[in-house]
Write a sequence for this structure.
């Protein structure tokens, strides 16, 4: 892999970048994402704590903005050194700011495909398709790879679908940003999947976008994995996107847990101090009024420290990444890795298994299964079993926005994917509201 090809400003529509534009193609990517409808919906999607009333608890939107900020810092820090290492970059007009802009834009979208109710939403969708009734209805109409997409629904693949969907004409991102977004550059059905490799722990595109990813891989020079038809090496900047997310969710979830009273201030402070080491100055911390402000300062310093450490690890392994020989998360190699591991363990115990989170997970399974049952069955019966299509099914389809209603002649897989686009794109509150209406527990006022 070469950096000049990896930083391809080409877009899928084939239009070349405008050399006279005041914004680079990658800065345009960032702005397009900010103003897109799928990104705005993250405002009302759960990060960890369900439907938070407290304004200090993070949603997917605030989390994504923070990950993007950290990603930009990582990209610029790395880019500053890479431009010096590779003189051909400067000759091609590529600067450290291009690295920062690519990582910032990719990081901004890293959660754009997540369904309602956090990660449990992915499990809820997968469980729906594994039910005997739905499997008997749909499986024979899908290829093995298509069926694997459905029974192992993945937010990363849904995100790639959103970013490349023809209906989202305002996006059309550069290949560099799309490749940096793709932490898992492989399909769901991978014959030789090795989960010890960080890029194969999940998958990054559905069968519906398989050819789109192949074009992206060719444009950016990602090598195909030996013996696999739909799996490639990871874009090096995807490691920085992953690191930005890891840094934020370790520290921000911990901070939220402290503010919610699930983890003590003292324990949170001590975790941060272990990351800071000699940079931790307890006497200066005592001069700051209020524990919220103290937490904010500690978190800021800890993020800065982890950015330094992740940057160093990336630069040490740059050549291995370019040669496709690097397969570890940066945060698993930083000096603070043991502290981050301890934070994650504590967060699982005290935050991710807290009663509000578990209650929302249970609700998510009911709500998403109920919505999918209504829309998938209605769509299937209308087009493939009209003798079973009822007035109830007709009403359900009318609740689908027109842009999500499948046209006659589509395959079962395409029909289901259209339903998934709608249901997974719902905000938490919209999903709950629509479920209540379908179940008759929230009737309109007459």
């Amino acid at each position: 892999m070469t950096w000049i090809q990896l930083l391809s400003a080409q877009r899928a529509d084939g239009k070349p970048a405008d050399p006279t534009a005041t914004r680079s193609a990658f800065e345009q990517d960032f702005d397009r994402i900010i103003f897109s409808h799928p990104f705005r919906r993250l405002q009302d999607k759960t990060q960890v704590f369900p439907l938070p009333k407290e304004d200090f608890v993070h949603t997917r939107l605030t989390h994504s903005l923070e990950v993007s900020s950290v990603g930009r810092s990582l990209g610029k820090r790395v880019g500053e050194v890479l431009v010096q290492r590779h003189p051909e970059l400067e000759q091609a007009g590529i600067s450290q700011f291009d690295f920062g802009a690519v990582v910032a834009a990719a990081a901004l979208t890293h959660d754009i495909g997540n369904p309602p109710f956090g990660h449990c939403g992915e499990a809820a969708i997968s469980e729906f398709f594994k039910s005997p009734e739905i499997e008997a209805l749909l499986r024979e109409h899908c290829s093995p790879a298509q069926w694997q997409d459905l029974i192992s629904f993945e937010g990363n693949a849904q995100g790639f679908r959103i970013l490349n969907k023809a209906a989202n004409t305002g996006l059309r991102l550069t290949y560099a940003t799309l490749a940096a977004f793709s932490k898992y550059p492989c399909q769901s059905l991978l014959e030789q999947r090795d989960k010890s490799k960080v890029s194969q722990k999940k998958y990054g595109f559905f069968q519906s976008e398989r050819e789109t990813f192949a074009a992206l891989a060719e444009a950016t020079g990602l090598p195909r994995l030996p013996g696999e038809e739909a799996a490639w090496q990871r874009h090096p900047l995807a490691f920085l996107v992953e690191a930005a997310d890891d840094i934020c969710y370790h520290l921000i979830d911990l901070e939220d847990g402290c503010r919610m009273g699930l983890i003590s201030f003292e324990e949170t402070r001590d975790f941060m101090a272990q990351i800071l080491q000699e940079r931790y100055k307890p006497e200066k911390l005592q001069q700051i009024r209020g524990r919220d402000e103290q937490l904010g300062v500690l978190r800021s310093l800890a993020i800065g420290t982890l950015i330094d450490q992740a940057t160093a690890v990336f630069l040490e392994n740059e050549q291995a990444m370019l040669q496709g020989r690097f397969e570890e998360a940066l945060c698993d190699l930083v000096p603070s890795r043991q502290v981050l591991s301890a934070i994650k363990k504590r967060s699982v115990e005290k935050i991710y298994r807290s009663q509000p989170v578990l209650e929302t997970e249970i609700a998510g399974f009911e709500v998403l299964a109920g919505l999918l049952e209504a829309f998938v069955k209605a769509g299937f019966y209308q087009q493939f079993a009209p003798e079973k299509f009822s007035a109830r099914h007709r009403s359900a389809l009318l609740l689908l926005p027109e842009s999500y209603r499948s046209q006659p002649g589509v395959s079962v897989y395409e029909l289901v994917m259209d339903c998934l686009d709608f249901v997974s794109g719902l905000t938490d509150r919209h999903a709950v509201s629509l479920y209540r209406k379908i179940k008759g527990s929230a009737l309109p006022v007459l």
Q: What stands out?
A: DSSP finds 22 helices and no strands in the chain. The chain has a mean pLDDT of 89. The chain has three domains: 3-115+153-220, 116-152+354-446, 242-353.
